[in-house]
Specification:
There is one protein chain. The protein has about 475 residues and is α/β, with parallel strands linked by helices. It folds into two domains: about 325 residues, Alkaline Phosphatase, subunit A (3-Layer(aba) Sandwich), CATH 3.40.720.10; about 70 residues, Arylsulfatase, C-terminal domain, CATH 3.30.1120.10. Helix content is about 35%, strand content about 15%. The strands form four sheets. Strands 9-8-5-4-10-1-11-12-2-13 form a ten-stranded mixed sheet, sandwiched between helices. Strands 15-16-17-18 form a four-stranded antiparallel sheet, covered by helices on one side. A two-stranded parallel sheet has the order 3-14. The longest helix has 26 residues. The radius of gyration is 24 Å and the shape is globular. The termini are far apart.
């Protein structure tokens, strides 16, 4: 582009000297066109913010039907953009969904079928070194990428955020915090500034909010677009809301159980914190061309009295309550305010969506598809077969359990030791009547699809290369 401009300027000066006013006018017009085209191309690249909650149930937001939880910030996003009513997480637990979101692939095809932990005897994934992550692709389009908050895809080199494409990391490497104020996990801190160990003070949600606003203020100084992946720990257990938020909920609704009160308070505090981030975005004028997506990594935990919107089950289960999650997208002048979609999206689709919005080609051989046509009000057929897996130890003895969704039919199991069940989730959204025996054809088709998937997965390592543990 620069060489073209210099060449045009040379000919413009030449034409002026020669007295050829017609040529001068034509060349000058072409120069303006090239400059404006370049400016428009730069303007067309949106900032992208992905906000991911941890263990937030489908029904926890007021805009998704909650009667006892007030979430004005996230409700305002549903009014400003598109609300998905049929959106899925890629897993019933944390790490696999995060791997799917950042690679666009089924998590077990990039080495993350289960939860990654610091305890190597109970860690069930290792992010493939061959996997291409979203920030690596966006970098080709000039994006600066940052992750604030929970990473949970590796604890050591080469699987730390700045080694996997992110330009900046300020957050938490591990799976969960034992305490929202000390930020430790099994006696060790996992908070980092890039690769440096840090010891922030305060509630983790407040800490991540402050770091996110600092990042937005810093990016205000640059003209290049940014991708911010803001991944909160909340409302993952331990359910530990700040005391002032706990008292607000108790005073407003004293009839709630203690468990439910604490969870509502933690979610409302999260909603308020997200509001602070969005307020900074607006103050900086960065909101005008920013695509914002909000979702959760899996359903809510039933033991904490989570609200999964009336769906059966919760976190760690393949029932709808464990994998169906809220999802909201906002992009001024691109997504119609107050719109709703029942399109069947899933976490891994966001990779391709963000790439298309940024005007960059996504990598080959991904499993997700771009939701951008749906976001922009176009008809899109997203009714493709989907597969879920979770690998875990403890009671499951290191085995997998699965779900397969084909059209309206969902085959699932919730432990590796029980037979598969089959439900028609349209006629039976509560997944109450197992109809496997009456629908052998669809059951056989589901098992065949799963078998094909497992043949692919069999060649993908999910442990760090090295000696076998406890040999």
């Amino acid at each position: 582009m620069h060489s073209q401009l210099y060449r045009l300027i040379f000919y413009i000066n030449l034409s002026r000297g020669a007295g050829n006013f017609f040529l001068f006018g034509s060349l000058y017009g072409l120069l303006i066109l090239l400059c404006s085209t370049k400016a428009l191309a730069q303007e067309a690249k949106p900032n992208i913010i992905m906000i991911l909650a941890d263990d937030l149930g489908y029904g926890e937001l007021s805009s998704y039907g909650s009667k006892d939880c007030r979430t004005p910030t996230l409700d305002s996003l549903t009014k400003a953009g598109m609300k998905f009513t049929n959106f899925y997480a890629n897993s019933t637990v944390c790490s696999p969904t995060r791997a799917a979101l950042l690679t666009g692939c089924y998590p077990d095809l990039v080495g993350v079928p289960g939860v990654i932990r610091s305890n190597k005897n109970n860690s069930w994934g290792y992010l493939s070194e061959k996997a291409v992550l979203l920030p690596q692709v966006l970098k080709k389009a000039g994006y600066h990428s940052a992750i604030i908050g929970k990473w949970h895809l590796g604890l050591e080199s080469p699987n730390t955020p700045t080694e996997r494409g992110f330009d900046f990391f300020h957050g938490f490497l591990e799976d969960m915090m034992d305490d929202y104020y000390t930020h430790v996990r099994e006696g060790k801190t996992w908070m980092r500034l890039n690769k440096q160990e840090v010891f922030p003070k305060g509630h983790a949600t407040n800490v991540f909010t402050e770091w996110a606003t600092n990042y937005l203020n810093e990016r205000k100084k640059s003209s290049s677009p940014f991708f911010l992946y803001l991944a909160y720990n909340a409302p993952h257990f331990p359910v530990q809301p700040p005391e002032e938020w706990l008292q607000k909920v108790k005073q407003r609704n004293p009839t709630l159980s203690e468990k439910r009160t604490r969870l509502v308070a933690l979610i409302e505090h999260l909603d308020n914190s997200i509001g602070k981030v969005l307020s900074t975005l607006r103050k900086n004028g960065q909101d005008k061309n920013t695509l914002i997506v909000f979702s959760s990594d899996n359903g809510g935990l039933l033991q904490d009295e989570a609200n999964n919107g009336g769906w059966r089950g919760g976190k760690q289960q393949m029932f709808e309550g464990g994998i169906r999650v809220p999802a909201i997208a906002v992009w001024p002048k691109k997504i119609r305010p107050g719109s709703t979609s029942d399109a069947r999206g899933i976490s891994m689709d966001l990779f391709a969506t963000f790439c298309q919005a940024a005007g960059v080609k996504s990598t080959a051989n991904i499993d997700g598809v771009s939701l951008l046509p749906t976001l922009q009000g176009q008809k899109q057929d997203l009714n493709r077969p989907l597969i879920w897996v979770r690998r875990e130890g403890n009671n499951y003895e290191g085995q997998d359990y699965y779900a397969v969704l084909i059209n309206d039919w969902k085959m699932l199991q919730n432990t590796p030791f029980e037979p598969f069940e089959l439900y028609n989730i349209v006629k039976d959204p509560g997944e109450l009547k197992n109809v496997k025996n009456e629908n052998k054809e669809i059951y056989n088709r589901s098992t065949s699809l799963l078998r094909e998937h497992l043949l692919k997965v069999g060649s993908v390592p999910w442990q760090r290369p090295g000696p076998v543990l406890n040999r």
